Amino acid sequence: MLNNNIRKSIAVTIILTALLNGTSFITTTKAATVTANSTNGPTTIDAQKYNLDKTGISDTSASFQKMIDSYPKDSTINLPKGIYKISDTVKLKDGMSLIAESDVVIEGTGKNTLFTTGNDNTFKGIEFQNCSIALRVLYVKGVHIINCRFTNNIAYAAIDIYGSSDCSVTNSYFYNIDKYGIKIDNNSSDITIDKNYFDNPKVFGGYRDAQIGGHVYCLSGSRITVENNILKNSGGQGIIFGYSSTLGKGTTNCVARNNQSTGNGQEGITIYGGVKKLSSGNSIIGNTSKNNRFNQIEVWQSNNNTVNGNTVEESIAGRGNLGAICLFTTTGTTVTGNTVLSAQNNGIDITAGSLYNTITDNNIANTNLNNNTTAPQKGNAILLDSAGISQPQYTTIRNNKISSSIGVISKSGIYSTSNSNNHNKIDSNSISGYKSGFHSYAKMTCGM
Fold first, then answer.
1. What is the top-level taxon of the source organism (predicted)?
2. How far apart are alpha carbons 166 and 120 in whole angstroms?
3. Helix (H) or strand (E) holding 64
């Protein structure tokens, strides 16, 4: 490979144009260095030269691939307005960019992958429809998707990132995706998902039961940043930092920040490591998560995570599960500065053998909206519970404000299903509006 200091390439910008009068022209421009756009003007190519059908009536896969193959790496292709029907998979060279001037739709058969990328590819302003996978990002780096749309019957994943790095998806729109909006797996790293909008036509994706899937579905990887997105009505999670049972790998050092997750068919935002706790060290910061089917924010079988500054709400009957914020078999996780506006069941649930967790400076209000009157472990502001596994121990619960704006709630501010010493530290909490504030069982877990 040539040293970068002596390497030279021809940067060609291709604009495919079908003029109304049927005429065309061709010019070429060379640049001294590799660049996405020539400073001396683009190369304009006649769309008819490649027999590209822009009406969407006939399959133009072979012609599209021929056009890609005829130009060097680092070329930028500006697609004119039209519908391009692709039945096969188009393979891009390294450094290529596909740019839409306006109203460009690339449509598949409902079962195919539309594009496999090379390194350093860019997609901008294109709408992808009716395929299994729109963009397959496989063992490459530097792929960037900007201002694109993914709509209308994408059966598996709009974007499938696998074993790749230094990629981003920004300012894009995902609508009516059957399974995964963006799926990330196999140690992908340094991925940014920013300022995108995800939605489906119906709450929970229209499914009666929870689905395996989600808008941003991370199975394994590190340094994945998911921020400033709106995520609504998935059949599964809004965002999940999970693990791959096939690869035996999880997600680490990832962050979900400043997202809005609403009406999804499982949790709003979850960290999930499985029984081997393969995911750890992730953060959920400054998000709003409300009226998802199960827990609004969940850390499940995962250690050393941060849940900070989030707002959660369960104002619709039938939403929620164990707690608006739930820690299940987690060790060393900090839950601080969060606001629980309402909860159908518990506000914060620490359960199933969780150890050495810190719950501080949270505001919790209006729990037990499902009006449970029989089970003491349901409807509390903060619950310590075994969930049939083991009691949480070495838990610090301090400086939380617990209140009610709906009258006296016939539950506890802080409750435990154990009355044994579990070495917890519970102090300096403000509790009002609950029938029992600091329940005697919770006190006993501190050795009182």
1. Bacteria
2. 9
3. helix 61-69
The answer to whether residues 150 and 178 touch, using CB atoms and an 8 Å cutoff, is no
Sign of the C-alpha dihedral computed for residues 55, 60, 61 and 66 taken in this order: negative
Segment (H or E) for 441: helix 440-444
Write b or e for each residue in 294-330: b if 16 or more Cβ atoms lie within 10 A of its Cβ, otherwise e. bbbbbbbbbbbbbbbbbbbbbeeeebbbbbbbbbbbb
Q: Cβ distance 127 to 106 under 8 Å? A: yes
At residue 248, the 3 state secondary structure works out as coil
Torsion angle, CA of 404/406/412/413, rounded to 10 degrees? Answer: -10
Give the separation between CA 232 and CA 199, rounded to whole angstroms.
5
| Positions in the chain short of pLDDT 50 | 1-46
Radius of gyration of the chain (CA): 26
Positive/negative CA dihedral, 80, 84, 88, 89: positive
Q: What pTM does this model have?
A: 0.90
Q: Which residues have C-beta within 8 Å of that of residue 89, sequence separation ≥ 6?
A: 112, 113, 114, 115, 116, 136
Q: Which two tokens stand for residue 178?
A: 């059957």
Buried b (16+ CB within 10 A) or exposed e, 161-189: bbbbbbbbbbebebbbbbbbbbbbbbbbb
> DSSP for 139-205?
S-B--EEES-EEEEEEEEEEEEEES-EEEEEES-EEESBSSEEEEEESSEEEEEEES-EEE-SSGGG
